[in-house]
Design a protein that fits this description.
416 residues, alpha/beta, Rossmann fold, 6-stranded parallel β-sheet, 5-stranded parallel β-sheet, 15 helices, 12% strand, globular, binds nicotinamide-adenine-dinucleotide
């Protein structure tokens, strides 16, 4: 049996989703009004499709209980779906989660082997730094009589049922074979790939997703204001035409390549065009904050990498820098991040640098004229070095990653 604590948008949908898949589920909500409403077959909020599913499962696979202790003995897996509000400064309020957890712990016996799955959204590292210490302080041992798991929920209000019952992926933050095996079985009927990751990763993916969609909305709004200030632009058509870019389509869509971390963008177009639009916007009296920050972050990311690299290596160590063009597949080195990275390394006294690029060594040397050694092959560059820094991800580097064994590698493109 599965228990779901907190029967709001996430909890009720979760409870009904598992009921629909044939599991026996008991649901608990400490808001009596809500709980009574659900018991009598009425959804206490508007959400398309849930009412029929509730009435189909109520009393057959889905049972409302007053407290967890009423179903504790028969329950192996407990989903916690209570609210986790934040104050104005973003500090999360975990009191609801802790109270729900407490109600579970009170009913757990030493011989039990219960899996507690947190679905409520919590900031990355909360499970490791707060939830596990919370249970351990009460005498339980994570991985022994209790297994703490994090499972981010991606459903959207309005399409909650469809999103839950047909998930695009299931992400489970967990440590330990037993909960992995059980959760694999539990999620099997959903026909979606199950990805097991660390607890912090599973929490972070939820914020990666929500922050991104929020950023897209604000970016679009900023662009609409710029368009309005410039004038004569049909904003609706402009956005609709933007949506016709083929990079939005395909599996995976090519836009995924842009939603990926690196050491910054370069080339002849993006940096120039951004600066030009910022300038135009200023001229029209609008301070394009997002665009300005995009440029700033593109500068800062190089400093981030340089600080990280120089913390870990000494100036005496020979370094191979692989990839000089601003992206693979071109010899174009205009605004290439590799230049800034190499220059910053040299400024900090790292002078034993050998560079290699399948196509761009000549153009890089001609454009920047840095006191560098160039290699004729990846193998040669790597063999002369203790440290390897990948600044643009040519396929050749990925195909020959065996050469990087025993080297200190910094993959600034996260491709290895
Ligand atoms: N709403 C969404 O679209 C959505 C999507 C993904 C993730 N989330 C996250 O999931 C969590 C739940 O969101 P929601 O929108 O379902 O919240 P909600 O406020 O609709 O529901 C939470 C429910 O938990 C109940 N509850 C609180 N403490 C309890 C306790 N100790 N015992 C039993 N019941 C208790 C409340 O009465 C309430 O009905 C939040 O962390 C939220 O950020 C929400």
């Amino acid at each position: 049996m599965i228990a779901v604590i907190g029967l709001g948008y996430v909890g009720l949908t979760t409870a009904l989703g598992f009921s629909e898949k044939g599991f026996k589920v008991c649901g608990i909500d400490n808001n009596k009004e809500k709980s009574d409403s659900i018991s009598s077959g009425r959804i206490p909020f508007f959400e398309e499709n849930l009412s029929g599913i509730l009435n189909k499962n109520l009393g057959k696979n889905f049972f409302i209980k007053k407290s967890f202790s009423e179903c504790a003995a028969d329950t192996e897996i407990i989903f916690l779906c209570v609210e986790t509000p934040a104050d104005r400064d973003g500090a999360p309020d975990l009191t609801y989660l802790e109270a729900a957890l407490e109600s579970v712990l009170q009913a757990v016996k030493p011989q039990d082997n219960k899996i507690i799955v947190i679905k409520s959204t919590v900031p990355p590292s909360t499970t490791v730094k707060k939830i596990i210490p919370f249970i351990e302080k009460r005498g339980f041992k994570n991985g022994k009589n209790i297994h703490i798991v994090y499972n981010p929920e991606f459903l959207r209000e309005g399409t909650a049922w469809e999103d839950f019952i047909n998930p695009d992926r299931i992400i489970i933050g967990v440590d330990g074979k037993y909960p992995k095996r059980i959760l694999n079985e539990v999620f099997e009927p959903f026909n979606a790939e199950v990805y097991f990751v660390s607890l912090n990763t599973s929490e972070f993916v939820k914020y990666l997703s929500n922050s991104f969609f929020a950023a897209l909305l604000s970016y679009s709004n900023e662009m609409s204001v710029i368009a309005d200030k410039i004038g004569g632009i049909d904003i609706k058509s402009a956005f609709e035409l933007f949506h016709k870019d083929k990079r939005w389509f395909g599996t995976p869509a090519a836009v995924c390549g842009y939603v990926y971390p690196s050491c910054g963008f370069g080339g002849s177009c993006l940096p120039k065009d951004l600066n030009v639009l910022i300038n135009k916007s200023d001229e029209c009296g609008y301070n394009a904050k997002i665009l300005k920050n995009i440029v700033e972050i593109n500068r800062e990311i190089k400093t981030f990498w340089i600080n990280k690299i120089t913390r870990e290596i000494t100036t005496g160590q020979p370094i191979a820098v692989l990839g000089l063009s601003f992206k693979p597949g071109t010899e174009d080195v205009r605004e290439t991040p590799a230049y800034t990275i190499i220059k910053m390394l040299m400024e900090r006294g790292y002078n034993k640098i050998t560079a290699y690029d399948p196509k761009a060594c000549k153009s890089f040397d001609k454009t920047y004229n840095l006191p560098l050694n160039y290699s004729v092959s990846m193998e040669d560059a790597v063999s002369k070095s203790e440290v390897v820094i990948i600044t643009s991800a040519w396929q050749e580097f990925l195909d020959n990653k065996d050469l990087l064994k025993n080297k200190t590698v910094f993959d600034l493109r996260y491709k290895l």
